[in-house]
Design goal:
It contains four helices and nine strands. The protein has about 150 residues and is of the alpha+beta class. The strands form two sheets. A seven-stranded antiparallel sheet has the order 1-8-9-2-7-5-4. The protein is globular and about 60 Å long. The two termini are about 35 Å apart.
Length: about 150
């Protein structure tokens, strides 16, 4: 399992509750572009439409050698999940007022592109400050332990 991209902005801005691995409906040129690392999460999110989940605002740069066969870089992409999983995810998101956010993209053992989506609740500014304080305290402790050894 090799990571292609991680959504660092999501980890900074959200608390995550549940995570799911799902496939992504892509064209050949998009897969080649992903293999080259030309992916940007930006402000991407997932939403349910007509009983299916779609990923919005995921930017995949066009593959130059695909010429006229390239698709739009920011088009909505279908997430591949079972119907029961989609119902479970959308009901949880609606009940708790949560957002579906892609956290990382990777190739599985068989070479397929997978996206990990998570139910996230937005952090307030004071939550972000607490995270920064915890990180600084941990760094200080590690530094002191290194100096003693």
């Amino acid at each position: 399992m090799s990571d292609i991209a991680t959504n660092k902005k999501a980890f900074r801005d959200y608390f995550f509750l549940d995570r799911w691995e799902c496939g992504l409906a892509l064209t050949g040129g998009e897969v080649k572009s992903i293999r080259a690392g030309e992916v940007n999460f930006g402000d991407s999110f997932a939403r349910e439409q007509k009983g299916e989940l779609f990923l919005f605002n995921l930017h995949i740069n066009p593959y130059l050698q695909a010429s006229y066969l390239n698709d739009e870089p920011d088009r909505p992409r279908k997430l591949l999940l079972h119907k029961k999983e989609i119902q479970k995810i959308t009901s949880q998101a609606a009940q708790k007022h949560l957002t579906l956010i892609p956290t990382k993209m990777y190739f599985n053992k068989r070479g397929f592109v997978k996206v990990e989506i998570a139910l996230g609740r937005g952090k307030k500014s004071y939550d972000k400050r607490e995270d920064i304080k915890k990180r600084e305290v941990e760094r200080g402790l590690k530094r002191r332990l290194r100096m003693k050894n």
